[in-house]
From TrEMBL:
GO cellular component: plasma membrane
Family, similarity comment: Belongs to the cation transport ATPase (P-type) (TC 3.A.3) family. Type IIA subfamily.
This protein's name: Cation-transporting ATPase
NCBIfam families: ATPase_P-type
Annotated source species: Spiroplasma corruscae
SUPFAM superfamilies found in the cross-reference section: Calcium ATPase, transduction domain A (SSF81653), Calcium ATPase, transmembrane domain M (SSF81665), HAD-like (SSF56784), Metal cation-transporting ATPase, ATP-binding domain N (SSF81660)
Residues in Cation-transporting P-type ATPase N-terminal domain copies: 12-86
InterPro entries: ATPase_P-typ_cation-transptr_C (IPR006068), ATPase_P-typ_cation-transptr_N (IPR004014), ATPase_P-typ_cyto_dom_N (IPR023299), ATPase_P-typ_P_site (IPR018303), ATPase_P-typ_TM_dom_sf (IPR023298), ATPase_P-typ_transduc_dom_A_sf (IPR008250), ATPase_P-type_domA (IPR059000), Cation_transp_ATPase_P-type (IPR050510)
Transmembrane residue ranges: 58-84, 96-115, 257-282, 297-320, 691-711, 717-738, 759-782, 802-819, 840-860, 880-902
UniProt keyword terms in alphabetical order: ATP-binding, Cell membrane, Magnesium, Membrane, Nucleotide-binding, Phosphoprotein, Translocase, Transmembrane, Transmembrane helix
Protein localization: Cell membrane
Length: 919
């Protein structure tokens, strides 16, 4: 006896017999755990939560932001200049202020980053908590639902298709459970589970057939199991320190922006060194106050820092967050900010038909029984009892005050009511004793009912599938063999109904019952219903918009080939180039290579099973397409995961589909996908405006300083000036630029973005021109002051510096207005103008006012203030004020017209060049 216990202890969970399992986990299989046991175990094992699901504290997030490479550069630079100042022993007031400003900028950036991080975490968890996960458990002899966090080892739980396994469990009763373990093992094929103990040793996870692992998904069947591993002790808890990485991963755009900023960071160091070198060279020319090398170092460090667009990463985060909220208002719930970008990049949308392209408001339009077509208003209950029995009994839909059930079933019940069939009474009198539920693979539903002590099978389903299983027919109550001739008549009817876009439902029954596997065999054909499901009126336009935006729309449906094609034509999904339809059966007969070839001309897939969807995504992706796929059922989850953007239906979607998808459509409407793409593209465009604005404003500042230093051997801006510029440009103006109103024009004649495309593509010209004019006018302010003022004026140099300061700060405040679609090619602007009326970016306007007021305060003619900023406004002649402001403002028209002129010239020359080439 003792020996057995020792052996048991060495056994793995999958090797234990049921008794040994219950003994080890101290649970009575009849009763489950008791309340006391649960409390004790909770104390030992804690909550059933994965380590990564615990949220990091705000303080931790805040401190982590300092590890951002850009913050690190700033901190290192600040500390360096502090050390130098201390070593030299001349830490003057402006040095201290400079250091404080650097610290201030780092901290402000960290605060903004922290707020954004916390907000986005809360958003993601608010989406998660909407679907609170519960599981059916046996405790104290009672079955009840509890939140999965409360599970402890020893709990006996019931898991069914559509559930994620809530902990590691040993299966004790298995009913054909098919589990997708790809989250854990990476294996794509679902595993059929078992409940027998296994004797082998050292099994890999995939071979432990009697174990269901936490976070894997039950695709089919159900099982009863005993929990043995929870939270961090589960397999996934042990290996996955961070299963929510997808939410924390950098988006491709963030990654690109970080790369860009790092490159600029390196350039800025070089520029800083040049600045330091030049100013050291000309130091005898400089004001006494700045001559010391620690002051020069601080200026060089500030200037270098000012070149780095450190707020870019935050801007990307904020823009994505704002877009997430905007999209939620348009029924597109984004679960992972990464998918906003991917949505903007997709070039294929694979969409379901029913409910997404159509209204899912079904009604019967055509009835076929006794081998005749009958008008809906003329259906006759008296002579077609079995036909209506089938409608009433093989259905779960109920119409009372509310309509409950699937739209297909509701439509048929409405027909029954029209025919005065009391379906509720039939259901009461003829009890259902067994059933095979509808699934999208068999495309049929069957019930077994007891009628006057006899058992009857009633089946309904896709007409062609039902017909395949019929051997007899019923005409006017008389059962006869179903001949090949009869089948032809029915197929003709199918095609006739389908060519009118009707959805077809076949009805059949039989009197005798056999084993369950044969319920659906040798049926008696009763007739069919042709059901209308009108397309959503807004979809046609949305498909057109998608086409103009270079996005191909592919319909994937379980419906009949002809019906699917008719609906697709009505919606403009098929065209001359893509006019073929492939059925699920054909997909199975084609090799992957042939499917890829067929795909080139096919926009409609009919009678497909969910597995085919994953195959279609695979083929499309192997041809370098970026694919969005919609889905609602549990079985759709592999294709939702595989697609670049998995889109679940909010109304008709299963919990699992929502869980594994990247995006949820709260109105199930295809049009919302298109508005999601529109938002995705807009975010990218707006972020590019911010990037180009920041780079231009930052570079012009250091170029101006270098220009004046090289030509006039003077340092025009102090470190405080430079740091204030960072504050205005980076913190106040650049962020609202990214929050402008959305433009519909992004979808016009524009192919989707190339994933690898540089963020700088298409914005180099505007950056160059802006930098050029900003620096030129700042330089002119400096030079003209010397020209205008008498040599005897002792404040000439100080006024000149004020001019540079005004041009370098007010310039960007004004020309920020250009950073919207102004820089689009003119031809595109004209084309889109009709759709997009000019929309003011109110965020930007209000932040511009804030920037103007703040800067004007720094310019007040107060001696102490002037001394602090190291320029002079006290007693500055009014004409200089006028000149400086004028030269700040005129940068805007110069950049605008200069840009357009240059663009025209370039396109003129490139046209000429290609004309010459073609001659
Ligand atoms: P989609 O895949 O585009 O959302 P679908 O609803 O046409 O569309 P399925 O739900 O797989 O795809 O349905 C396929 C066919 O099965 C339908 O055309 C219909 O004939 C039949 N069908 C649908 N619902 C039921 C049901 N509840 N009972 C029996 N048969 C059904």
């Amino acid at each position: 006896m003792e020996e057995k216990v020792i052996i048991d202890e060495d056994l793995e969970w999958y090797q234990l017999s049921n008794d040994a399992l219950f003994e080890r986990l101290e649970v009575n299989p009849e009763k489950g755990l008791s309340k006391d046991q649960v409390l004790k175990k909770r104390e030992i094992f804690g909550e059933n939560i994965l380590p990564s699901s615990k949220k990091p504290s705000i303080l931790l997030i805040f401190f982590k932001t300092f590890l951002d490479p850009l913050s690190l550069i700033m901190i290192v630079a600040g500390v360096l200049s502090l050390i130098i100042s201390l070593v030299v022993g001349k830490l003057t007031a402006p040095d201290i202020v400079g250091l404080i400003i650097i610290a201030f900028i780092v901290i402000i950036n960290s605060i903004i980053a922290t707020v954004q991080e916390v907000k986005s975490q809360n958003y993601v968890s608010s989406l998660d908590s909407k679907e609170k996960k519960v599981i059916l458990v046996l405790r104290d002899s009672v079955k009840k639902e509890i939140p999965i966090e409360q599970l402890v080892p020893g709990d006996i739980i019931y898991v069914k298709a559509g559930d994620f396994v809530p902990a590691d469990i040993r299966i004790i009763e298995n009913q054909l459970a098919l589990i997708d373990e790809s989250a854990l093992t990476g294996e794509n094929e679902p595993v059929l589970k078992d409940d027998e103990a296994i004797t082998s040793n050292n099994l890999v996870l995939g071979d432990q057939k009697n174990i269901a692992f936490m976070s894997t998904l039950v695709m089919e069947g159900k099982l009863l199991g005993v929990v043995f591993g929870t939270g961090k002790d589960s397999q996934i808890g042990k290996i996955a320190t961070n299963i929510t990485t997808s939410n924390k991963e950098k988006t491709p755009l963030e990654a690109k922006v970080i790369r860009l900023t790092t490159i600029i960071g390196i350039i800025s160091l070089i520029l800083g060194l040049i600045l330091f070198g030049l100013s050291w060279l000309f130091k005898d020319n400089l004001d006494e106050g700045v001559r010391s090398w620690n002051r020069l170092m601080l200026i060089a460090v500030s200037a270098a820092i000012s070149v780095i667009p450190e707020s870019l990463t935050i801007i990307v985060k904020i823009c994505l967050m704002v877009a997430t909220k905007k999209m939620a208002r348009k029924n597109v719930l984004i679960k992972n900010p990464k998918s906003i970008e991917t949505l903007g990049n997709i070039n294929v949308i694979c969409t379901d038909k029913t409910g997404t392209l159509t209204q899912n408001k079904m009604s019967v339009d055509k009835v076929f029984y006794n081998f005749k077509e009958t008008l809906v208003n003329e259906v006759d209950l008296e002579n077609n009892k079995e036909f209506f029995n089938c409608i009433a009994l093989c259905s779960d839909a109920v119409i009372s005050k509310k309509k409950l059930g699937s739209p297909t079933e509701l439509a048929s019940i409405e027909l029954a009511i029209k025919a005065k069939c009391n379906y509720k009474k039939l259901r009461k009198d003829y009890k259902r004793i067994d059933e095979i539920p509808f699934d999208s693979k068999r495309k049929m539903m069957t019930t077994l009912n007891l009628i006057d002590d006899k058992k009857f099978v009633y089946s309904k389903g896709a007409l062609d599938y039902v017909l395949k299983n019929c051997s007899y027919k019923l005409i006017d109550g008389v059962k006869t063999k179903l001949t090949e001739e009869d089948k032809k008549v029915i197929i003709n009817t199918i095609e006739n109904f389908a060519s009118q876009g009707l959805r077809l439902l076949g009805l059949a029954y039989k009197e005798k019952t056999m084993p369950k596997e044969r319920y659906e065999k040798d049926l008696i054909f009763l007739g069919a219903l042709g059901i209308i499901d009108p397309p959503r009126p807004e979809v046609k336009e949305a498909v057109e918009i998608a086409r103009n935006a270079g996005i191909r729309v592919i319909m994937i449906t379980g419906d009949h080939k002809i019906t699917a094609h008719v609906i697709a034509s009505r919606l403009g999904i098929v065209d001359d180039e893509h006019n073929d339809v492939i059925t699920g059966q054909e997909i199975e007969e084609l090799s992957d290579e042939d499917l890829k070839i067929k795909l080139k001309t096919t926009n409609v897939f009919a009678r497909v099973n969910p597995e085919h969807k994953a195959l279609i995504v695979d083929c499309l992706q192997s041809e370098k397409n970026i694919v969005a796929m919609t889905g609602d059922g549990v079985n759709d989850s592999p294709s939702l995961v595989k697609a670049d953007v998995g889109i679940a239906m909010g109304i008709n979607g299963s919990g699992v589909a929502k869980e594994v998808s990247d995006v949820i459509l709260s109105d199930d409407n295809f049009k919302s996908i298109i508005s999601g793409v529109n938002s995705g593209r807009n975010v990218y465009e707006k972020i590019k405006y911010s990037i180009s604005f920041l780079i231009a404003a930052n570079i012009s500042q250091i170029i101006t300083i270098l220009l004046i230093l090289a030509i006039e051997k003077d340092l025009a801006l102090s470190s405080v000036n430079i740091l204030f510029h960072i504050f205005i440009v980076e913190t106040i103006i650049a962020i609202p630029i990214g929050m402008g109103k959305e433009r519909k024009g992004v979808m016009n004649n524009k192919p989707p973005l190339n994933k690898k495309e540089s963020v700088l593509k298409g914005i180099i010209l505007q950056i160059t021109l802006t930098t050029l004019f900003n620096s030129i006018f700042a330089f002119l302010n400096y030079q003209l002051t010397f020209l205008i003022l008498d040599t005897t004026n002792p404040y000439r140099a100080d006024f000149a510096k004020t001019g540079v300061y005004i041009a370098i700060i007010f310039g960007p405040i004004f020309y920020a207005l250009l950073y919207n679609d102004t820089f689009l090619p003119i031809s595109l602007r004209i084309k889109t103008a009709k759709k997009d009326k000019f929309k003011l970016n109110y965020y930007l306007i209000s932040f511009m006012f804030l920037a103007i007021i703040t800067t004007v305060i720094t310019l007040l003619p107060i001696e102490k203030l002037n001394a602090f900023f190291e320029f002079r406004t006290e007693n500055m002649p009014y004409y200089l004020w006028l000149l400086f402001f004028l030269f700040s403002f005129v940068q805007l028209p110069f950049i605008y017209f200069g840009y357009n002129l240059l663009k025209k010239t370039i396109s003129y020359y490139s046209k000429n060049k290609s004309a010459i080439k073609s001659q």
